[in-house]
Design brief:
This protein has 17 helices and 14 strands. By secondary structure, it is of the alpha/beta class. Helix 1 packs antiparallel against helix 3. Bound molecules: pyridoxal-5'-phosphate.
């Protein structure tokens, strides 16, 4: 059951990466809630630790439940391999450290998740990794002008939060590859159901599967998917070409590098061996199970949520107290052509709107909604509302927030699985009360 890519999405989301024969024919993926796995005999122990035989020995490095999740997401994204980690932030951090470890520059879209922005601006420079922030990542001339000898990657989100701008992944990938640099895409908002960055040339895809992938607001988790096509032996990534003690054989006095040992699969291998194993942000087996359970209904949830989001966005666009709806799924959006090309199933169920009023009125709406929950999350089965300028995006300095139109009268919605007309009714009554 290893390579299943010829199957369609809805079959893969239920079956990919799982062979019931190997698990007592259990219909659901069993939760291997164990730390360690027996070696059986000393010969097998040696084969396992020397990577001569595939198998499990310690859950920080690999676990059969998590392994199914990793294989499933790799199949859904068209990647060669995936590594599950303890959170979306661990996925972002490990990926960029793996690429720029030892120092270097990364080109990033400025309009990104607030915590990623804060990490790039204030923490990574302390590790010798500095960022070139680009206001419009689709401005390829601007991006190209920033590429230098020590640039290690280009990073962007496929769909931005909360204004749903879309990144021109295909063009960005071509530019990155022209310069021997990998493209990393945070695909959290669309999920693999709405968009496959690897199909358009991205080399690494990261997810906060805390959001739409697990889909029920129940588990913090992250995923890293490696397309398995990039050559990390091109001279730009010393850490991939260094001889590694752990990949060699001390008695035979051989040491090997990641590129020698794993070829174009070196990225995922190095994440597992150096970052998961040494820094340790592992996803627990039961959490992997929750994410797998979420993936089983990913397309059904997204289909309904996108349809409801489009209906609710149209309602808000007609509302006299709404100044603007920030949703690239609407037909009059400047990016509509790009959206049609990349997102035939819709651009997602998370968007924002700006009220034609005061911040006090925006706060009233937050107080008056009855079905929407006021909390800092997205991609839940429940509908959510938040004022990002004061909460989720507080980590971004106001100068950057202003550039992306993130005012304090902007409200973000994440549409859940409730009845769309009830959700419209809820927003309608809250807006009415806020404007009396
Ligand atoms: C939530 C989020 C993250 C961080 O994920 P956690 O699972 O909360 O650590 C990263 N990127 C994007 C786009 C997100 O929405």
């Amino acid at each position: 059951m290893a390579v299943e890519s010829e199957k369609r999405f809805d079959t893969l989301k239920i079956h990919a990466g799982y062979d019931p024969k190997q698990h007592n024919y259990a219909s659901q993926v069993p939760i291997y809630q164990t730390v360690a796995f027996g070696f059986s005999d000393p010969e097998r122990a040696e084969r396992l630790v020397n990577l001569k035989e595939k198998g499990f020995s310690y859950t920080r490095v690999g676990n059969p439940t998590t392994d199914v999740l990793e294989k499933r997401i790799a199949e859904l994204d068209g990647g060669s391999e995936a590594v599950a980690v303890g959170s979306g932030m661990a996925a972002v951090s490990y990926t960029l450290l793996n690429l720029a470890e030892g120092g270097g520059r990364i080109i990033t879209a400025a309009n990104i998740y607030g915590t990623s922005f804060d990490e790039f601006r204030t923490l990574f420079p302390k590790f010798g990794i500095t960022f070139d922030f680009i206001d419009d990542i689709n401005d390829l001339d601007r991006v190209e002008a920033k590429i230098r000898d020590d640039t290690k990657a280009i990073f962007a989100e496929s769909v931005t939060n909360p204004d749903t701008n879309v990144t021109h992944v295909e063009a960005l990938a071509a530019l990155a590859h022209k310069h021997g640099i990998p493209l990393v895409i945070d695909n959290t908002f669309p999920t693999p159901y709405l968009f496959n960055p690897i199909h358009y040339g991205a080399d690494i895809v990261v997810y906060s599967s805390t959001k739409g992938i697990s889909g029920h607001g129940e588990v913090v988790s992250g995923l890293i998917v490696d397309a398995g096509k990039f050559d990390y032996g091109n001279g730009r990534f010393k850490q991939f070409e260094e001889k590694e003690f752990v990949l060699g054989d001390e008695e035979a006095q051989v040491e090997r590098s990641f590129t020698e040992t794993f070829g174009t699969r070196a990225f995922a291998a190095r994440i597992r061996v150096k970052y998961l194993r040494l820094l340790g942000a592992v996803l627990s087996p039961i959490e992997s199970y929750f994410v797998l359970l979420g993936i089983e209904t990913l397309s059904e949830r997204l289909k309904k949520q996108v349809a409801s989001a489009e209906k609710i966005a149209s309602f808000l666009a007609q509302n006299p107290h709404v100044k603007a709806v920030h949703y690239s799924g609407l037909s009059d959006h400047p990016q509509h052509e790009l959206v049609n090309r990349y997102f035939p199933r819709g651009v997602g169920a998370i968007f924002a709107f700006e009220i034609d009023g005061t911040e006090a009125q925006a706060k009233k709406i937050l107080n008056y909604v009855k079905i929407f929950s006021y909390l800092p999350n997205v991609g839940d089965a429940r509908s959510l509302i938040v004022n990002p300028g004061r909460t989720t995006h507080r980590e971004i300095p106001s100068a950057y927030r202003r550039k992306s139109g993130l005012t304090n009268t902007l409200l973000r919605l994440s549409i859940g699985l409730e009845d769309a007309d009830d959700l419209i009714g809820d927003l309608d009554q809250a807006i009415r009360q806020a404007f009396v």
